[in-house]
Protein: Nickel ABC transporter, nickel/metallophore periplasmic binding protein
Organism: Lacrimispora defluvii
Amino acid sequence: MKKRLLYTCLAGVISATLLSGCQKQGSKEAAATGKEQVNTEAAAAKASEGTPKDELVFVNFRDIRDLNPHLYAGEMYAQEMLYETLVTITADGYAPCLAESWKISDDGKTYTFKIRKGVTFSDGEVCDANAIKANFDAIIENKERHTWLEMMNLLVGVSAPDSETFVIELSQPYYPMLTELGVTRPFAMISPKAMKNGSTKDGVEAYIGTGAYVLKESVTDEYAVFEANENYWGEKPKVKKITVKVIPDNQTRILALEKGEIDLIFGKNMIDADAVSKYKESNKFSVALSAPTSTRQIVINTTNDILKDKAVRQAIQHATNRQAISDGIFYGLEAPADTLFSRTVPYCNIELTPYEFSEEKAAKILDEDGWVMGSQNIREKDGTPLKLTLLYNSDSVTEKTISEYLQSEYGKLGIALEIKGEEEQSYRDNMKTGNFDMVFNICWGTPYDPQSSLAAMRQRVYGDYAAQLGLEDKAEIDQAITDILVSTDEEKRQELYRFVLTRLHEDAVYIPLTYECNKAIYGSDLKGVGFTQTQYEVPFAQMYFE
């Protein structure tokens, strides 16, 4: 019955709920412009002649923005198309990319990479060890911007003894080193000729990489055109041209797919649950879902006068119906989350007792902790009403919907929950400074988890640091995280992870809600659509048409 009531409560908004921050853009409908039908007719004509299409039309909710690989404003799927890193992360571990091999010193402090021969940037510049060093020098120049990656705090220096050898030296061993070198940014390589006087911190002259595609044209907030890199050192992609249309609205994207104006919708926040359910049994379209990529969560501020009481935090955990949120908002596509990280995440498959949903248990905890029902059905303790505020990103339909549901559910227990939506930058600023009681957040996701998410808890990156300041064991947790990052013993590292994850779970700092997954809907003639270890990558180079 409760599930049915939740469905009723959410009627009229479910179809938009998976946007999660993707509503920031205006309602401009670029699909209506003539420019957006770039070569669609030519591609269709080619297909009708019996030749497989080699042009793909993709869609994104916003413009590609600044694609400087050493900064953080650009769309990561586009950066993945243009730029490459020393290593790549696969389902089987690390694989060569711009470095064809590497050695790690016995003490774990020195990494020596043999750079692949014959690789050039798309402007003809040679990508050798000297070019790699020029990139690292540019990144290091802006070091403070990148300290969320622990490697930057341990970096002693880099060198290029010769054109085929690149060396990184650290002050301590660091086990996630190759992961950080393999993620989309900031350790992707751009042509030194595209830098501004050897620097990238203030922008670049052009977006020139060694990747499988090059950017040929872009019109802000309308479209971008990528073409296969004729000088690419690796296997040439079968899709030779990719046009990315900018369509902010979810329903407009679906209509464009139905009309054949686009071939592929891809991304965890690009497709709503209604659409996935609708096309699962379709012959015309295919649907793909990835394993969990990240955790949708609420962070509780332990410095708050009410929430510093662990009993209150635990009561709220039991008052949160994750299964109803999963079923009612996400049609079960996002599984209910029992713990901060999915058990599929490395080091996180440990035994933790979930906080079961139980209104009776939540009420009992509050009763025993002295919170008695007062006037207007709001609990009180020593004259203090149990009133809290939940901060959410007003650009996210999903967070607003969940907030309204929790406001209603918590109210039944005598918890007065005010919900407050703020535009994205203000929301993030308040989260970072700890100006919240409870706030929505999403963990960093694959392949950054768990190491980067935990490392960032030790500094004011997002809301974690501020939220944890009221914990008696905060210093102990932080030290264990530091020990994790420099540990060389696998067994000890697992035990340290167990300690940290258990403490955070029992301290009830995080309310995990659901596990996000990547999603794709595409025409059934498009093959090779899948997911990589990097959740932001769209693997265009693997795709082809039949």
In short: Confidence is low (pLDDT under 50) at residues 1-42.
